[in-house]
From TrEMBL:
<dbReference type="InterPro" id="IPR032466">
    <property type="entry name" value="Metal_Hydrolase"/>
</dbReference>
<dbReference type="InterPro" id="IPR050287">
    <property type="entry name" value="MTA/SAH_deaminase"/>
</dbReference>
<dbReference type="Pfam" id="PF01979">
    <property type="entry name" value="Amidohydro_1"/>
</dbReference>
<dbReference type="InterPro" id="IPR006680">
    <property type="entry name" value="Amidohydro-rel"/>
</dbReference>
<protein>
    <submittedName>
        <fullName>Amidohydrolase family protein</fullName>
    </submittedName>
</protein>
<keyword id="KW-0378">Hydrolase</keyword>
<feature type="domain" description="Amidohydrolase-related">
    <location>
        <begin position="52"/>
        <end position="375"/>
    </location>
</feature>
Length: 394
């Protein structure tokens, strides 16, 4: 069998950045044989300027919202953003499907090989069945009034079954957010997620904590707008949103907390007392787009939290690119080493989605895809001009 050999200025293995002497060797299908030295590798080495990395893992996306690209103004805050989303969901199916296909193609082109994708309906299913990318399907449910818990659960169950038929090991039902799921609905969701990976939008805006602490703030505007009289069923818990809902999400083995823009040390301490694994999924560009904020990333690092990256959707991001997420984080947190950022983008994401046996690093036997990041700075750092390109599919 012929081998493929790749050499660049730098090679990120999944755990460390190796210098230009390192050569990655795969078989014809892209399965990793080894990383060796140039002198050991022999002839026919393909050479590149830049850094080679395993394919990126996008742990949080809503592919089905791709048709909303550029439709929602920036910096409106989360509540107005959600109200916009509710209005814009009604586009023609042809437009929605075309936007889904284009967004997926762009993700593949810029080095994403696997996606944790939120689905409220089955519109992405036909595209996912083409097998261009690997997916973990999070079938999302919402409904804040306890009266609609059963009907929302049953509607979601139909979508869940449609995906589960084709993706039996990588489909799970998940709650949308603390402010949009009732205790009764949490209980129904929890009944079908035992030992699985779950996900929830977490503390994306300051008012989310305020709402659970005191019942005040902008979320009241949201319920008014959708005609939901929450006074008949909601009482503030007096705790942050995260501490209010975590006790209601007990059956999944692992929980992806998405956004975490207003997560505190007390919240992290609270999570430490739970039996579950928690993964902090950062979507920096979406936080900038919606709230003009960034999560307390150094707080998560100081606490040795498990961090992964997501793009969120084209409703709240100008592109679905993990490199762009890295660039934004680097810009505001220049202290974070590139090795660490790349680990979040690759091996941590693969582990979070239970895909690390095949993806996330250049360990022998994996088939993680090979991505080239070009236009590095003189000392090998990622710049605002850097671009990522998939040069070998996963
Ligand atoms: Zn999201």
């Amino acid at each position: 069998m012929a081998f493929l050999k790749y050499q660049a200025d730098f090679l990120f293995s999944g755990t460390e950045i190796l210098n230009s002497d390192a050569v990655l060797i795969t078989n014809e299908k892209g399965m990793v044989e080894t990383i060796t030295t140039a002198s050991e590798a022999g002839d026919d080495i393909q050479q590149f300027r830049g850094l080679l990395t395993p394919g990126f893992i996008n742990c949080h996306c809503h592919l089905e919202l791709s048709h909303m690209k550029g439709m929602i103004p920036e910096h409106t805050g989360l509540v107005d953003f959600i109200l916009n989303i509710l209005q814009l969901r009604h586009s023609s199916e042809v437009d929605i499907l075309e936007a889904i296909a284009n967004a997926e193609a762009a993700m593949k082109d810029n080095g994403i090989v696997a996606v944790g994708d939120i689905s409220n309906n089955a519109l992405t299913l036909s595209q996912k069945l083409r097998g261009n990318l690997q997916y973990h399907n999070f079938i999302e449910v919402s409904g804040f009034s306890p009266a609609i818990a059963q009907v929302r659960f049953e509607t979601a169950m139909a979508v869940y079954q449609a995906f589960k038929t084709h993706f039996p090991e990588s489909t799970v039902m998940v709650p949308h957010a603390p402010y949009s799921v009732s205790p009764q609905l949490f209980q129904l969701i929890d009944s079908v997620t035992a030992q699985h990976i779950s996900s929830i939008h977490n503390q994306e805006t300051k008012d989310e904590n305020l709402f659970f602490l005191t019942g005040e703030g902008l979320f009241n505007k949201l319920y008014q707008a959708i005609g939901s009289d929450i006074s008949t069923f909601f009482k503030p818990s007096g705790q942050n949103s995260l501490q209010t809902v975590i006790p209601q999400i007990q059956s999944p083995k692992k929980l992806l907390l998405v956004h975490d823009t207003f997560t505190s040390q007390a919240d992290i301490d609270f999570l430490r007392q739970q039996a579950q694994d928690y993964v902090f999924c950062l979507c920096a560009n979406a936080n900038q787009y919606i709230e003009n904020q960034l999560p307390p990333i150094n707080l998560f690092r100081q606490n040795n939290c498990n961090i992964v990256l997501g793009t969120d959707s084209l409703a709240s991001n100008h592109q679905l690119s993990i490199l762009s997420e890295i660039q934004t984080i680097s810009q505001y947190f220049p202290n974070i080493p590139l090795t660490e950022l790349l680990s979040w983008a690759t091996i941590n994401g693969a582990k979070a989605l239970n895909m690390a046996s095949k993806l996330g690093s250049f360990n022998a036997g994996k088939q993680p895809g090979v991505v080239l990041i070009d236009s590095l700075s003189n000392n090998g750092g990622i710049t605002t001009n850097s671009q990522a390109k998939l040069i070998l599919p996963a």
